[in-house]
Q: What sequence folds into this?
């Protein structure tokens, strides 16, 4: 079993994700938001429109990150990423 990285996100990383889904979609042209499991590098992606419909446009990525867990191993130690258009 690989070693699990349990390091917290740095202050700079947290601040970078304190941004709303709508802002990312409108101004940054982000099409997909995802998370990567730090334990096993599992990844999961969602179209940003799907996240906005489910969680509302003003929801921040940081708020979602606190709720998400890896769908394969169940780890809550995940880091967000964005994919542009």
A:
């Amino acid at each position: 079993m690989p070693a699990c990285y349990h390091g917290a996100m740095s202050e700079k990383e947290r601040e970078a994700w304190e941004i709303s889904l709508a802002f990312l979609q409108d101004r940054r042209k982000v099409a997909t938001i995802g998370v990567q499991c730090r334990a096993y590098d599992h990844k999961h992606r969602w179209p940003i429109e799907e996240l906005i419909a489910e969680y509302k446009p003003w929801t921040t990525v940081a708020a979602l990150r606190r709720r998400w867990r890896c769908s394969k191993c169940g780890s809550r130690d995940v880091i967000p990423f964005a994919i542009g258009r």
Q: What stands out?
A: The radius of gyration is 13 Å. The beta strands are 30-37, 43-47, 78-84. Residues 14-84 form one domain. The longest strand covers residues 30-37.
